[in-house]
């Protein structure tokens, strides 16, 4: 089954052709990162406009890369939640138009389910049930993947997501957007241990996370140094911040693995590209005797291949949309599709 997948949840216009949920025949991405860097973050209105300008071209490129045409597609898939509502609407309406014009099924896909499906592309042997850490700009969840379309959130952030904390800390350190990548580069030049940062915990919820206080601690360190005219070792602070985030995420993931007896562990989302987090996860997995599944870096970021992968499994259980399909800025991963 060949699925044409569309992803426009944030600032990447992406389209891919995926066969049978695992084989990526093509993947095209138009990134807006350089434009949004001028503003220090994603500007929703600009993102929506660029999606509208680029979606036809990006779809054509994906089809060209696959050596296929629109009539060769068996279904059209699209991210419909969660994300920037204006950006999502561009993709959803474009996909609905294609579905109607071609007479092909329309498959709505939850963005976070798509991130989890990126692991299926990278690891052919991976199948539910397994435990997955979803760490991205807008989400930090520990998810039980009970089946391809059945999920249970057992831990999550109570405020900022890990990726959001990275971006805010990077801004305070004077680093450009996207902050997570820049902090990772800077942190690699120093050794953790110079700055004492808090390890926030949520009372009576040991698997939940809170990154707001950690972010504030970095802000205060930077502001206090500036006010006192003291030097700030930005590289060391970046290393300590990254190390703390990695500890908060990995420690809770493997606590959940022990509690629920999982030996198959995955991690996905943009923050899963962070080198300190990947190293910590690998170390903790080895200590736990668990098998760790990490997607390659190009599948950590938003892409349409992961949407096409998940769409295959949504289609198999009858999760099909129609012309009434809408987009949603927020939606729980466990909520029934559309």
Could you explain the architecture of this structure?
The chain is an alpha/beta fold and 338 residues long. The protein has two domains: 2-116 and 301-316, ATPase, nucleotide binding domain (Nucleotidyltransferase, domain 5, 2-Layer Sandwich), CATH 3.30.420; 127-298, ATPase, nucleotide binding domain (Nucleotidyltransferase, domain 5). The protein is built from eleven helices and ten strands. The chain has helices at residues 33-37, 44-66, 85-102, 111-122, 162-172, 179-187, 212-228, 234-260, 275-288, 297-300, 305-316; strands at residues 2-7, 12-19, 23-31, 75-81, 106-110, 130-135, 140-147, 150-156, 264-268, 291-293. It has a five-stranded mixed beta sheet, with helices on both faces. The chain has a five-stranded mixed beta sheet with strand order 8-7-6-9-10, sandwiched between helices. Helix 4 (111-122) crosses helix 11, helix 5 packs across helix 6 (179-187) and helix 5 (162-172) runs antiparallel to helix 8. The chain is globular. The two termini are 22 Å apart. The mean pLDDT is 95.
Global outline: globular
Share of helix, binned:
40-55%
**How would a crystallographer describe the biggest sheet?**
5 strands, mixed
The total strand number stands at 10
- Overall pLDDT metric: 95
* Largest sheet, spatial ordering of strands: 3-2-1-4-5
CATH topology of the largest domain: Nucleotidyltransferase, domain 5
SSE class: alpha/beta
Radius of gyration: 20 Å
Quick one: CATH class of the largest domain?
Alpha Beta
What is the number of domains?
Answer: 2
Tell me the strand percentage band: 15-25%
| CATH-level-2 architecture of the largest domain | 2-Layer Sandwich
Low-confidence stretches: none
Q: State the fourth-level CATH superfamily of the largest domain.
A: ATPase, nucleotide binding domain
| Helical run tally | 11
Distance between the termini: 22 Å
